[in-house]
Amino acid sequence: MKVRCLIIDDEPLAIKVLEKYIEEVNDFECVGSCGSAVEAIQFLSEQPVDLIFLDINMPKLSGIEFLETMKNPPLTVITTAYREYAAESYDYDVIDYLVKPIELPRFFRMVNKVTSRLKIPSKIIPAQETDKV
Question: E strands of the chain, at which residues?
Answer without folding.
Answer: 3-8, 28-34, 51-54, 75-80, 96-99
